[in-house]
Amino acid sequence: MTGLLRRAAKALPGLLTTPLLPDDYLTLVNPLWSARELRGRILEVRPETRDSATLVIRPGRGFGFDYRAGQYIGIGVLVDGRWRWRSYSLTSVPRAGARIVTVTVKAMPEGFLSSHLVSGLAPGTVVRLAAPRGDFVLPEPPPPSILFLTAGSGLTPVLAMLRTMKRRDQIGVAGGTDAGGVDVIHVHSAPAAADMLFGAELADLARVCPDYRLTVRATRSEGRLNLARIGDLVPDWRDRQTWACGPAGLLDDAERLWAAAGLADRLHTERFAAPVARDAGSGGTVTFAASERTVRVDGATTLLEAGEQAGVLPPFGCRMGICHTCVVNLVDGRVRDLRTGAEYEPGNRVQTCVTAPAGDCVVDI
Amino acid sequence: MWWTSDGDHRYRSIRAPHRSRRRALGTELDAIRRDVEESLGAADARYIRRAIAVQRGLEVTGRLLLTCGSRRRTWWAGTLTLALAKVIENMEIGHNVLHGQWDWMNDPEIHSTTWEWDMAGAAKHWRITHNVAHHKYTNILGMDDDVGYGLLRVTRDDPWRPRNLLNVPFNAMLAVGFEWGIALQHLEIREVADPETRPAAVVRLREFGAKAGRQLAKDYLAFPTLTAFARTVPAGRKSSAGAGFASATRAPFASAAVAGFASAAAANATANLIRNLWTNAVIFCGHFPDGAEKFTLTDMAGETRGQWYLRQLLGSANIDAGPVLGFLTGNLAYQIEHHLYPNLPSHRLAGISVRVRALCAKYDLPYTSGPLPVQYAKTWRTIAKLSVPDRFLRDSADNAPETRSERMFEVLAPAERRRGLKTAIAEVRARASRLR
């Protein structure tokens, strides 16, 4: 009887607000009280270098702090009435009882949204969050010897790993017990040592932890790192587990090198690919993620038609862009509205009956 | 019935309008869509967020008045506030969000795929019958179920059956229980009988049952129970302040609880009834007053984009409205513009209507609009008239208030047929009234 009453009491708020949720009313008082969609409030935008900043975010109800160093979160910001999404590596240390998370954003010259995040976001702004994800993470406990290969803002997930290992005393500290400490070599490329992200923090880390050795390659003066000669810098690179993050060129080279050495399973990579639309009409390969099918179509073929060609049966209604029965989530790539030419980026739900791929794209059906 | 016979050249000059003109009209209507889509921004997003906040505020206020107050005046204030909240929730918010009018904001909480509304039927069922069937096949007898809701005879194109004698009482029933009429629309309960369609039909029934069950439980169980509890608190206080305890307390306790339960249930029923009558009136004013034409399947064969626009234009009717009435109708007072652009945000339709009216003047096309009481009375008049067989009616399906065909222009001389549709209709009408 009491069990029944308790269940009734628990169901009551939901029944009183149906078809909405109690959270839909709470969010009108404080946006962070709703756990229906993850949200966070920007506490601080801390400049790091000339063109980058760390966002200190206080997540609202429902956010799990049990993420792992190296994972990324999605951040949605409201720009001109529209929610626009980007993913950034968390740079904060995951721990129980934490109240904040941080991400570090570099303003890309062509990236409107990243510039907005670095310089246009006022403290107090409410942003949307997507739960942490990604498998660019260290195992627990970490392997005895590690190579970190990073370039530019590819440093951020590795920074989270370093901070976490430091906090957990997993890297040997000078004068410490040094029992079972992890040996880390870190090769980082930046245009110039002076405008390197977190340069001071990493230099400090190298000073207190003799088992953390950092080599910074200033590419503007020294030229790009030649991975074929990695052995000169890291003689035992074959014996190390390697985590690499940076521009596609670096990662492609690394994958080739490690594969040629028969060590592909020792290399872990993370790509930050900003989707770029190809010319109108060029089409692309459409991947239907849930149905695990792909099809190549031209730029005049709608996603709906592409799905039907691939044997996926996407939902549809009017087939003329008015009913919104066919909308699906665009996971990656870009699509173009055939009626208006408007382009949509990942994180949008798009009408498959009137949009066509603008380059390769992935949809969630 | 309009461009029924594209192979028939007899009335080409007058047919609504000539093909090249239709294409030009389509291009101009497309341009309006593009202008509006490109101009959507922060101010529009603020509008819908505010509308939602106001609606939820009204709903909470109404429920609080009903739960905490016990006087007659409070009951009425609470009931009317709740009814207003339900009207706004249903029309300006629910209907429009479910159309995808706010999908451009990419807000997962105000999105056609995630929204659920305060109606007996499931939103996902309604999106099929409404967004697809009604908005694509608008006013086509046999395709658009909103043409009579499977219950009423609303056009002479529909052959008379004896049950149409009950058109007027059926219409009254539908108005009173409108949310249930809408909920049953997509269920196609008959399909349960056929083994082939049964599984899908059963799934729909189950989804409907879950949704309707929660709606009923909220309005007729949860809130009444809460009110019953709230009423027993002062009743208990009063009796314990009095002399005796024991048996004396039980009676006022129970009667206060029953009264509270009944008053909340009655208030919710009244609010739902007001919302049903209002939405029914607004929606009927959109397609059933004089001038809003019905179509048949052949009208749609080989239809171009321009013809689709034209069918929306000729099949819909507006209500003359200012900002307040516009808001209360969910901007369906601009039914014509809503049908031309079902997924453009509702608060933009008033502005769009200025441009659409100008286009109608330019292309000499009819644009039906009138005051709410007049339009609503006309819907009842048509429904009442059509309850009897056609032989008792003066107008034929070729030239009636709710449907017409090109044959109505046979009375015109060839030179007169070269005019626009609006002028031609007016000329035929004028001639008929002169003859009368």
Descriptive terms for the model:
heterodimer, A: alpha/beta, Elongation Factor Tu (Ef-tu), domain 3, Rossmann fold, Ubiquitin-like (UB roll), 3 domains, 9 helices, 23% helix, globular, B: mainly alpha, 14 helices, 59% helix, disordered N terminus
Written account of the structure:
The complex is a heterodimer of chains A (365) and B (436). Chain A is an alpha/beta fold. In chain A, 23% of the residues lie in helices and 32% in strands. Chain A folds into 3 domains: 17-133, Translation factors (Elongation Factor Tu (Ef-tu), domain 3); 145-271, Rossmann fold, CATH 3.40.50.80; 284-363, Roll (Ubiquitin-like (UB roll)), CATH 3.10.20.30. Chain B has one domain (18-391). Chain B is built from 14 helices and 2 strands, in the order αααααααααβαααβαα. In chain B, α1 (19-39) crosses α9 (305-315) and α3 crosses α8. Mean pLDDT of chain B is 90; it is low at 1-15 and 241-246. Chain A binds chain B through residues 12, 15-16, 18-20, 24-25, 27-28, 36-37, 76, 78, 80-85, 128, 317-318, 320-325, 327, 339-340, 342, 347-349, 351, and chain B through 30, 33-34, 37-38, 40-46, 53, 56-57, 60, 63, 99-100, 103-109, 111-113, 116-118, 123, 127-128, 131-132, 135-136, 211, 214-215, 217-218, 222-223, 226, 308, 342-343.
The figure for the number of domains of chain B is: 1
State the share of residues found in helices of chain A, binned by percent: 10-25%
How far apart are the termini of chain A? 45 Å
Q: What is the N-to-C succession of helices and strands of chain B?
A: HHHHHHHHHEHHHEHH
**What is the tally of helical segments of chain B?**
14
The CATH C-level class name of the largest domain in chain A = Alpha Beta
